[in-house]
Design goal:
Elements: H1 5-13, E1 24-29, H2 49-55, E2 65-67, E3 70-75, H3 87-96, H4 100-104, H5 117-123, H6 125-131, E4 136-138, H7 144-151, H8 159-166, H9 174-178, H10 206-216, E5 222-227, H11 229-234, H12 242-259, E6 265-269, E7 288-293, H13 310-318
Parallel strand pairs: 1-5, 1-6, 4-5
Antiparallel strand pairs: 2-3, 3-7, 6-7
Helix pairs in contact: 5-8, 10-12
Bound molecules: zinc ion.
């Protein structure tokens, strides 16, 4: 099934279906920058028919645009701080709307700076939504292995998990995954086979994953899903190519956009560049794409950096029109 603009127009006019104003699905993709199309940008030729139909071309900076119900714009991730943008500070910026790297004077990889964790907990989009009486769903499923890795200190809590726990969100598990009420971070669940977790119901197709994500938006005004595939592929820590990862993401977007309930807005963005430059060995200082599809798209037109996403997101959830 392919996305088409007829579906989209239905989404734009149906936003009064809910008690809250503008429900939103936030898809966070780690490590995708927005750069010009060229031979070193794998997004130029990646198999992304859904994005191409939506934008009129690949997810490159030539497609920056704003029209009713559709916005693609670049977001600065450097936030005025030297060095390569990183996930720890970048994700705090996105989720809490603060200039995290400026506050600590550097970009911090992987996990949120300890000094900023209280602020993240208090000001996250989940907590702000909660303050307005709005529930959020964290759509990712977390495995027993994940919690064990936290307990044994092999992993630390990501920005999203800190924010979700502080807002009292239920973190979904494998039972939710089997019930079709959650997604694995790799979209299809194929990663679970590597953990010896077997199920005849996995992997699901990317399209099914997108349909599932769309359906979750019927249960809460804010649905959040995070996917680390691009950054891991960019660092060559996966047995998947950047092209394969992009095709999987595009398949998810196909399912998601086709099933997006009336009035729901899709927001997709990233914390820093990586896969859009095959020459750079890791992260880049490129901007990241802010892609917004749906009735709240215009609210994000003034956003210029990753720290600026949270405020209009909350405004969209609570404000009329
Ligand atoms: Zn990285």
């Amino acid at each position: 099934m392919s996305y088409n603009r007829a579906n989209y127009s239905v989404a734009v006019i149906g936003c009064q279906t809910y008690g809250y104003r503008m429900p939103l699905i936030f898809v966070f993709l780690d490590g995708i920058g927005l750069a010009p199309a060229n031979q070193h940008n794998p997004l130029t030729t990646a198999d992304t028919p859904t994005l191409q139909a939506l934008l009129g071309g690949p997810l490159t900076s030539e497609q920056v645009q704003h029209r009713p119900g559709l916005l693609l714009r670049p977001l600065d991730t450097t936030l005025g701080v030297a060095g390569l943008p990183q996930s720890g500070t970048g994700q705090v910026a996105l989720l809490a709307g603060i200039n995290a790297p400026a506050r600590i004077g550097r970009h911090q990889p992987s996990y949120p700076p300890v000094a900023l964790q209280p602020l993240l907990a208090e000001q996250s989009i989940f907590r702000q939504a909660q303050a307005h009486g709005l529930h959020s769903i964290f759509a990712n499923a977390f495995t027993p292995a994940y919690w064990h890795a936290l307990a044994s200190r092999r992993l630390r809590r990501s920005a999203s998990v800190i924010a979700a726990e502080a807002a009292g969100l239920r973190l979904r598990d494998l039972a939710d995954l089997w019930d079709g009420q959650a997604l694995m971070w790799d979209i299809t669940g194929a990663v679970l086979h590597a953990q010896d977790i077997d199920s005849c119901s996995l992997p699901i197709s990317p399209h099914t994953a997108g349909t599932r994500l769309a359906a979750l938006s019927l249960a809460a005004p804010l649905v959040f899903f995070e996917c680390f595939l691009p950054d891991l592929a960019g660092h060559q820590r996966l047995p998947l190519s950047v092209e394969t990862v992009m095709a999987r993401i595009d398949g998810m977007l196909d399912g998601l956009l086709a099933a997006l309930p009336p009035g729901v807005t899709l927001l997709l963005t990233s914390d820093h560049g990586n896969i859009e430059d095959s020459v750079a060995p890791g992260h880049t200082r490129n901007p990241v794409p802010l892609l917004v599809v749906g009735p709240a798209a215009h609210r994000f037109a003034p956003v210029v950096d990753t720290a600026g996403v949270a405020a209009p997101l909350i405004d969209a959830l609570v404000a009329a029109g």
